[in-house]
Write a structure and sequence with these properties.
Elements lengths: L21 E5 L2 E5 L11 E11 L2 E7 L8 E2 L2 E3 L6 H13 L1 E14 L4 E14 L8 E7 L1 H5 L5 H10 L11 E7 L5 E6 L6
Parallel strand pairs: 3-8
Antiparallel strand pairs: 1-2, 3-4, 3-6, 4-5, 4-9, 7-8, 10-11
Amino acid sequence: MNAMPLPIVDYKFCPQCGKPLLSVDFSGQHRPHCPDCSFVFWGNFSLGVGGVVWHEGKVLLVQRAHNPGKGNWTIPGGYVEQDEQIAVAITREIREETGIHAKPLSVIALRDRPGEKHDAYIVFLLEYLGGTLQGEPEEVSDLGFFTLEECENLPIAQLSLSVIKASRTLLIPTSPGFLPQTGVKMIGGDQAILYQISKEPE
């Protein structure tokens, strides 16, 4: 498989130490590299999250107020901030866009879109906790809870409808839990958060 060319970037100097960068071959891919502090530009990435929230047999949707997809209906979601945990990001986005409070239960899907910016999007199933429907005007032109049949008759994003249908198989008492485990040590000594879909066998 041929490596996808990295996007053109303005990096001529290291963003960490300010020294000139060199182009170095890493496994067949030329990357900006700093010989002084070992910084490597690995690529341009973004991480988004979306959430499926059911309440009384209906699922939460928002109507996009801007392009791309203005006027289409989707599950609520958005981008993860640089210093933000993904589980915090999805609850924040749902609260900001809809006024609804929810708790992550499980991961439903992962959308992967390589390109000049490698875009990944994680879809969660969340438990409805409460709140009052109130859209964020800059992001949402309308919102509400809809039955699956109503969803199928809306101008709805294909990904949203697909994950809504998939989520129904998880709406059972024995559905896997979403268990964040903090303080997991990585190679090099840093710590991270491990999100497990279910408990390890006892």
